[in-house]
Structure formats: C-alpha cells, structure tokens
TrEMBL record:
It comes from Camellia sinensis (Tea plant). This is NB-ARC domain-containing protein. It comes from the Eukaryota. The keyword Repeat does not apply. It holds the Pfam family NB-ARC. Residues 18-130 form the NB-ARC domain. Keywords: Plant defense. InterPro entries: NB-ARC, P-loop_NTPase.
C-alpha cells in the first residue's frame, strides 16, 4: 500500500502488484494531468520523472508494509534523498529490515490492544456510544453471530 500526500490533498491505493504499477499510481496522484503520458513511459523515464516531481513539489509518500530490502532497493531510485521538502515514510514489521534500509531510522513499536481497548475500539467503530457512566447507550445495536 502507499499513500501520497501533496500539500493538503491525499491519495491512496492498495496495491499488490508490480513495482511499475506502484510507481505509476504514485506519479498519477502527484501529477494527475499526466495520467495518459505515464502509461507510455519507459521504466527509466518513470523513475526519473517521479524523482523530479518530488524535487519540485513538497509531498509525503508513505510506503506501507515493506517486507524486504530488495523491495525497497527496487523502488529507492524513484525517491529523492536530501533536502527537497519531500519525505518518504516506510513502515515494516521487521526491525532488522528497518535498520538495513536506514541505520539512523526512527523506530516506533506498535503494541497490541488489550481486551478492554479492543472492545472500546469495536464499540466506537460499530457506532455504539457510551454515556458518561461507561454504560452503552443502545441507540444503535450491533449483533455478531
């Protein structure tokens, strides 16, 4: 999955496809008026154009759930490294992978929710509301079988 944020606009898509598809979709989110053109680009040209767009525009690209160093290395040339104003945020489940990608990485461990936190989240997502006493206000019901 990736998310592209440019200025205050957001675009996202869930992808389980090729490197080219991922880069094309990111490029299209950043430069929608060039959608027809990007399909015809050679791989090298796609990498160069995506790189240049990120140097000119201030954007945040989130690459979620990177599983291997090889996956990152195959995408890396399309992203500027340095003081361009654009940023790349990678997420992974693998601590060793994070340190291989960037030895100075920022590490944040997510923890699992406990039973109460899990239930509270389910209630919020299922639109059940709690009154001030912690009791469920049964204006909306959720039945799970």
């Amino acid at each position: 999955m990736y998310i592209v944020i440019e200025l205050y606009q957001r675009g996202h898509a869930y992808l389980s496809s090729t490197k080219r598809d991922i880069l094309q979709e990111i490029f299209i989110k950043l430069v929608p008026e060039r959608k027809e053109e990007v399909v015809k680009m050679r791989n090298e040209e796609l990498f160069e154009q995506l790189y240049e767009v990120q140097q000119k525009k201030k954007c945040l690209v989130v690459l979620d759930d990177i599983w291997s160093v090889e996956a990152w290395k195959s995408l890396r040339p399309a992203f500027p490294n340095g003081n361009t104003g654009s940023k790349i945020l990678l997420t992974t489940h693998n601590k060793a992978l994070a340190s291989k990608i960037d030895p100075c990485y920022f590490h944040h461990d997510l923890r699992c929710l406990n039973e109460k936190e899990s239930w509270d989240l389910l209630e919020k997502k299922a639109m059940l509301r709690r009154d001030g006493t912690g009791n469920i206000n049964h204006t909306t019901f959720l039945y799970i079988f």
